[in-house]
Amino acid sequence: MKPPQSPSSLPAGEILRFSAGSSPDARSRLDVERLAGAALRPLHDGDRMPAWLQDLPWESERLGAPCFNLWVSSDPEDARTIARLAPLLPRDAFIWVRVASEHLRAREALAAAGFAPVLEMLNFARRLSQPPPAETIDAELVPALPSDIEVLAGMGARLFTTDRFHADRRIPRGAADALHADWAANCARGTAADVTLLATRGGTPAGFHAWRILSFEGERAGATVLIGTLPEHSGRGIARALLQEGLARMFAGGARTAWVRTEAANHPACGLYASCGFAPCSRFWYFRMR
Prior knowledge:
The protein is α+β, with helices and mostly antiparallel strands. The chain has helices at residues 12-19, 26-36, 57-63, 79-85, 104-112, 149-159, 164-167, 173-189, 238-252, 267-275; strands at residues 40-45, 48-55, 67-72, 94-100, 115-127, 140-143, 195-201, 204-216, 219-229, 255-263, 279-289. It has 2 domains: 7-113, no CATH class; 127-284, Aminopeptidase. The chain contains 10 helices and 11 strands. The radius of gyration is 20 Å and the shape is globular.
């Protein structure tokens, strides 16, 4: 049996073709960059290693079961590889895999191997050649502080209900809400995001935008982690103002590219990103082992 490959020697092109599309964009390549530093569990198939399980401790703790991402190093349309992997996977666990929307045969192979489609996602990207203009709104935009952790947690539990965790029938609604509450709180703590911008109206929280600044191939990029506006404050341009101000601050921080991801069926969000200069760059499905 061959010795396990180190994460740094992962066949990025093949994994990318399975996980993020046949014409991977920079945002997709960042996924492999992060994967190279992750804790990976190899799945051996004879003297081959066609896949790795990436441990997800944060998700595991919050969902009360082992959670993994599955990364496949093979032709994504090779149904035999997917079928061979199925008996190697741990049971009673949440195991997710991503496959580009255009890979119909790979999606069929996943379904035949016991994976269920959960949700289709859409990636957007735009260049930042200059800071976008500020929006005039009846709200104040200020950086979130550690003292805003509970505020962010409350908004996180309410705002994000169309995501893959809420779409998964195995995950109780309360658990999905709590996961997003903690995710938003971690943005205020500075562990899930580098900067979090809080919108308030009359001293009342109305929404927030959290993002990271990443370095890739010699260029800095801004990636939105979470963004949303509470329903009672919708229709006032707050989400657009949060996004535009975030992009301006990303630009000031040296970012020359920006990325954001949302559910393909979230038409209001897709329309917002398009109106702010973003263009779709890839789309993929989340599948989860049944």
